[in-house]
Amino acid sequence: MSTYAPASATRPGRPRVIPRAASAATPRDEILHAAAELFVNRGFAATSTRDIAEKVGIRQASLYYHFAGKPGILAELLELSVRPSLEKVERIERECPAEVPEAALYLLALIDADTLATVPHNIGRLYRMPDVRSSEVFGEFEPALQELTAAYGRLGAQVVSGPVAATVTTDQLGGLLIQAVEVVIRIRSRGATVTPAQARAIAATCLRICGVPEVRIARASVTADEHLYPGTMIRTIGDQAHTSK
User: Fold this and answer.
1) Of the residues 15, 49, 171, 212, which has the fewest C-beta atoms closer than 10 A?
2) Angstrom distance (rounded) from CA 70 to CA 111
3) In what residue span(s) does the HTH tetR-type domain sit (predicted)?
């Protein structure tokens, strides 16, 4: 999506300032991890590529062998906060049974909660930060966020009750639903961990926003498990929630 293409990762960089410890992480991953922590805690504008390089333990020049600059790093981090959820929308819509349409919205919310709960350093906070939102990178990322919001609205519109439908448009409903899931960001901002039970409660809340009766919410949860577990669609939270039933 972004026009900020990373520099080649195959060229040898200058020697590391700090010897690299044995790790499965690649230098590129280490840069992303360090940048995520600095951007979230210090701010995007206040963080330099020198700061990132020093945190990784490499020379600043070596960073440019992996990324063209700070905007490219931010672009990749922003993608990590929405792309895993967005890539699963088509499968959700295809595989959820038509007789239980609530399961599709429930599952999207659960997957999205998982994404936001497991990305490093709570990087879901980034697209809320003023210095990020005012950047050119955010303008290129925003269509992906809008696409995910539209998916929430589309799935919500399939199950919304008459009284709720009379008060909000599909676009507004999508915004309400994605905001309900983004409570994960606030939970993590307080230093807490999002539990499987909380993730399921968030998914159920999305259905309640649509006016879905409790009996249908319970069926949506069971249907999501029966039709779409196990597998790779849901990682930590989904797998734990399923096995803890």
Assistant:
1) 15
2) 29
3) 25-85
Mean pLDDT of 216-227: 88
What residues does each domain of the chain span?
81-243
Owner of token pair 């990020």: 132
**C-alpha to C-alpha distance for 120 and 57, rounded to whole angstroms:** 19
Q: What is the pLDDT of residues 1-51, one digit of tens each?
A: 443 334 434 343 444 444 444 456 899 999 999 999 999 999 999 999 999
Position 161 scores a pLDDT of: 97
58 vs 71: CA distance, rounded Å: 19
State both tokens at 168: 């909000």
For residue 173, the tally of other CB atoms under 10 A from its CB is 24
First to last CA, the chain: 39
